[in-house]
Amino acid sequence: MASSSASDCDAHPVERESMRKVSQDGVRQDMSKSGPRLPGESAITDKEVIYICPFSGPVKGRLYITNYRLYLRSLETDLAPILDVPLGVISRIEKMGGVTSRGENSYGLDITCKDLRNLRFALKQEGHSRRDIFDVLTRHAFPLAYNLPLFAFVNEEKFKVDGWAIYNPVEEYRRQGLPDRHWRISFVNQRYELCDTYPALLVVPYRASDDDLRRVATFRSRNRIPVLSWIHPENRAAIMRCSQPLVGVGGKRSRDDERYLDIIRETNKQTSKLTIYDARPGVNAVANKATGGGYEGEDAYPHAELSFLDIHNIHVMRESLRRVRDIVYPHVEEAHWLSSLESTHWLEHIKLLLTGAIRVADKVASGLSSVLVHCSDGWDRTAQLTTLAMLMLDGFYRSIEGFEILVQKEWISFGHKFSSFPTAFEFNECFLVAILDHLYSCRFGTFLLNCEAARERQRLAERTVSVWSLINSNKDEFTNPFYARESNRVIYPVTSVRHLELWVNYYIRWNPRIRQQQPHPMEQRYNELLALRDDYIKKLEELQLATPTKLTDSSTPPSGSAQIAPRMQTHF
């Protein structure tokens, strides 16, 4: 049997390091042979297995299962553990082989994970040895199906910062200068009776009454009416979000909905049209009429300008992501990498999303027009577009606290079925990876359930810990040291596919061979800054040669040179 050190297998360097030290909340974890323990985490069972490592072959080890994770420690070495996987990351558990299977390591379990990994464990065939561990894994990886609590409800971690207090909608809207003479805060949804997937507090036009909102809700999918997400601090053009109108094949109209959109348009006197961005491909929006949906036609909404952004639905995205998984795990074929990546269409989808968000941001910032964004139900593509547009427009959201508020507002509060320029964002790559990992881990209550109403009923803020508690109690680990706060600067990404790259440090992080080739994120950013500095100096020198005035340390740069840095920082 092949032997392997833990460093050759799936354990991520950050994971291994975290097991050697005090946990991030400051509470020391139990570091016994049975693995680390969080407060509230309890052991369920353990079993000797053979882990089929896709990179270095079979590893004999002991698999420990708790109410939070599966944890594998090698029996052949005393080095760091090989696997530490939250059970919430598991999407499927299948039996591999049968009692009559022949061949080494042909009998066991095959586990598919939401973080692109696939884990295979071989067990002894005698006495149905996998039955117990299969049952235990299934029960605790999918606890709700067995009337068991999610780990978030038994997690007893304590942090110095209360992450549940990070987002206060009234304070966030006040930061934006709201309410004002055109916009008011409505509590019509305080009991979630108007729309059960919307937050309790909504910002709507001052001239629209609560009764108006109730009538409009009957003509919008899932009652998700147009409400304000963000308003420009200077020109007061707004970003609104909603769901599709219920036009249907008969071409139904709603005078209340049409009047409401006119009221929204009239809050901004700088343009005569309200811009509507429908995230869907036009053909899909037409097809949605067959199921009662549709879009804002010119006949019914003559003062609106409608554009389709051609972003595909979640089913197409999932298939594209499945193809990405196929090419990044477990092995990457470097000889065919570019063609394989192109065949997934993943970067094409990212390009369309970024291009759409740029159009939204530019229309608000430069076009001085208020914008209404929606897709079908208004919570997948809609939130992606509004979030990205607000990141481009508002420097506050590029800080750690601001980004947390943006996620809490646009994704969590408004409901969701659940590489950048190095100085523009306060948070680093570890921050984004931590959010993505805990989206599935079930360690925190932040991303549980689908809407604010359900979270209120389950009292998540009282019964669970927020992921923002972890992050804000350890900000140094998630902070970009090169961050330069510029709240009023609008940034736009380059959306050409040739400038887009797959996020290797997330999608291919489990492959040790690829990891070894990747520079540390901070090192990479440092090198990028050095390159920018060198380029800047070179351009200054060229300008000095082109002008008769020789610059000294106290000289003012010649006309034009001061614009070099802003131009270089336009795109991320």
UniProtKB/TrEMBL annotation:
Region (Disordered): 1-40, 548-572
Pfam family, one: GRAM
Single GO biological process annotation from the record: lipid metabolic process
Active-site feature positions: C375 (phosphocysteine intermediate)
Residue intervals of the Myotubularin phosphatase domain: 163-507
Protein's UniProt name: Myotubularin
Organism expressing this protein natively: Rattus norvegicus
UniProt-listed Gene3D superfamilies: Pleckstrin-homology domain (PH domain)/Phosphotyrosine-binding domain (PTB)
Encoding gene (name): Mtm1
Family: Belongs to the protein-tyrosine phosphatase family. Non-receptor class myotubularin subfamily.
Alphabetically ordered keywords of this record: Cell membrane, Cell projection, Cytoplasm, Endosome, Hydrolase, Lipid metabolism, Membrane, Protein phosphatase
